[in-house]
Amino acid sequence: MSRKQLALVIDLNVCVGCHACVTSCKEWNASGAAGPMSDQNPFGADPSGTFFNRVQTFEVGEFPNTETVHFPKSCLHCEDPPCVPVCPTGASYKREEDGIVLVDVDKCIGCKYCSWACPYGAREIDANQKVMKKCTLCVDRIYDTALPEIDRKPACVKACPTSARLFGDIHDPQSEVSRAIREEGGYTLMPEWGTHPANHYLPRRKTRLRIHADELVRADNPLTVEGHPPRPAPDASTLEDASI
Amino acid sequence: MKPAASVILLTTLIGAGQGLFLALATLQIYALAGLLPPAAGSALFVAGSAVALALLAAGLLASFFHLGRPERAWRSAAMWRTSWLSREVIVLPAFMGAVALYGLLFASGWNPVLMSSARGVAIDLALVVAIVGTLLAFALFVCTGMIYAAIRFLAEWHTPLTPLNYTLMGGASGFTLAAGMAALLEPQRVAFLAGWAIVLTLLAALGRAASLLRNARLKPRSTLQSAIGVKHPVVVQRSMGFMGGSFNTREFFHGASPGWLRTVKPAFLLLAFAVPLALLALGRGQPAEASGATLLAAFGVQYLGLLAERWFFFAQARHPQNLYYQAVA
């Protein structure tokens, strides 16, 4: 557990579903180290393309008690990634130093086996390069010392207008992400598979004012009790008087 | 999952090739043990090895069409410690080498006796190759089956029945083919091989029926609730985030209608098991020299049936990622 594990924490309470993270991810990674993220027929009738990040929308509940949940989805950089051991070439690997799961595009043979072994559908094959691609947590950006320190974050995190995306080391208990997971109820997706995703999600949180009936009507309001002045009466002696 | 023609051809072709080689090795070992009279000639062994090798090579060729970057295929032998796919990549050429050597030994007639046992049983090179080849054939069945059985997310595949059925179905088709070839090349072996083909086809039918029954009762472990982590009985996807297609919408959905699935299932049960069983029984009852057409027809029908079976095998597997790709908007 001492090893660093970089991850995203995505706050579903804040996400407005604007897709800024999707476009920012595409923009940055289209010129990234792994080669372009190609599109097929992008302006035609049946467009298709490679994306590392998607924002999906779900409706929870039945009308009129419904709620819209915008749900950004990318590689979760599992702590026990099932996609890595199945790779026959070793192209798919998890970095020792920071826990990022990456694909070596020069070793990948495009057999798609890793995508079968990912329950989240986080991997997409690039139809032009014929190799598997996935979120890199902007590994070519977060360590780039040529960038100002404030910009050394994944493109999606930088793009989010509502700061719904946090980035940091979830193994460092003092980090912003660890604190958010701990204090805001961070959870992982499909915990039933034991993949231990590094990325966490923060749930929708409602601020509710609890008002009990006896708080609406003052039980001890002297005006409602006719004929009984407030006690002790202003001129009556009190315990303080007795002690003098 | 979307059934890929390349993988369907790979698994069915090499299965038949492995089964055919196992049939030849069985003949040899039975003859050595004195349970069968010695072979009249080497024609069946030479032709059988050649056909098995051709089937394996065709399967290997088909597998290259599955790869995005086939020119890098050599890299896939690297991760044999963890990946069943990598293990298959190593075992398949090794097995092909054994089959080729086996055929060459019979074709050339060069077969030195390596040692003799105390009871005078000669252990020659062909026997050693037969035993090594048999072990490799079984290893290959296990590797092929485990590629699918090892993925725990695909519950339909994640069972010991998967490698078992690959073994039984490959064995059945290989022995059926061997019986058909024996009718043309070594008729006195037809009854023996057709008998084994019947036994294996019956066992394969049982194994596949067991996996169908098991799969019919499976309940998906992941739900939309666990997929997005919202505790509510009613969660509906309104948008998958894009309106065009993507790898996720193509690779994991078979796209066929429920009616087509309902048609393919009885069709493959009929073609891969029931009809071949009838034809094998019919061929076994015919005079051995005249049974070639019947037995080869049994193989043809069974192979078609296994193609349908393999299509169904892939189509039936439901990947949990599909939960995230339910609605286009």
Could you characterize the architecture of this molecule?
With 244 residues, chain A is α+β, with helices and mostly antiparallel strands. Chain A has a single domain (6-202), classed as Alpha-Beta Plaits. Chain A is built from seven helices and eleven strands. Chain A has helices at 20-30, 113-116, 139-142, 155-159, 176-183, 213-216, 239-243, and strands at 6-11, 39-40, 48-49, 53-60, 67-74, 92-94, 101-103, 124-125, 132-133, 165-169, 200-202. In chain A, strands 10-1-11 form a three-stranded mixed β-sheet. In chain A, β4 and β5 (67-74) form a beta hairpin. Chain A is elongated and about 95 Å long. With 329 residues, chain B is mainly α. Chain B has one domain (5-324): Formate dehydrogenase/DMSO reductase domain (Formate dehydrogenase/DMSO reductase fold), CATH 1.20.1630. Chain B is built from ten helices and three strands; from the N terminus they run αααββααααβααα. Chain B has helices at 5-32, 43-64, 84-108, 125-149, 161-185, 190-216, 224-228, 247-251, 258-285, 292-316; strands spanning 113-116, 122-124, 235-239. In chain B, strands 1-2 form a two-stranded antiparallel sheet. In chain B, a hairpin with a 5-residue loop joins β1 and β2 (122-124). In chain B, α1 packs antiparallel against α2 (43-64) and α9 runs antiparallel to α10. Chain B is elongated, with a radius of gyration of 22 Å. The chains are: A alpha+beta (244), B mainly alpha (329). β4 of chain A pairs antiparallel with β3 (235-239) of chain B, so a sheet runs across the interface.
Compose a concise summary of this entry:
Chain A is α+β, with helices and mostly antiparallel strands.
Number of strands of chain B: 3
Strand order of the largest sheet of chain B: 1-2
Strand content of chain B: under 5%
Number of continuous helical runs of chain A: 7
Q: Helix coverage percent of residues of chain A?
A: 10-25%
Overall structural class of chain B, as computed from helix and strand content, comes to mainly alpha
What's the Cα radius of gyration of chain B? 22 Å
Mean pLDDT over all positions of chain A: 91
**How can the largest sheet of chain B be summarized?**
2 strands, antiparallel
CATH topology of chain A: Alpha-Beta Plaits
CATH class of chain B: Mainly Alpha
Q: Encode the helix/strand succession of chain A as letters.
A: EHEEEEEEHEEHHEHEHH
Strand proportion of chain A:
15-25%
CATH A-level architecture of chain B: Up-down Bundle
3D shape of chain B: elongated
**What string gives the helices and strands of chain B in order?**
HHHEEHHHHEHHH
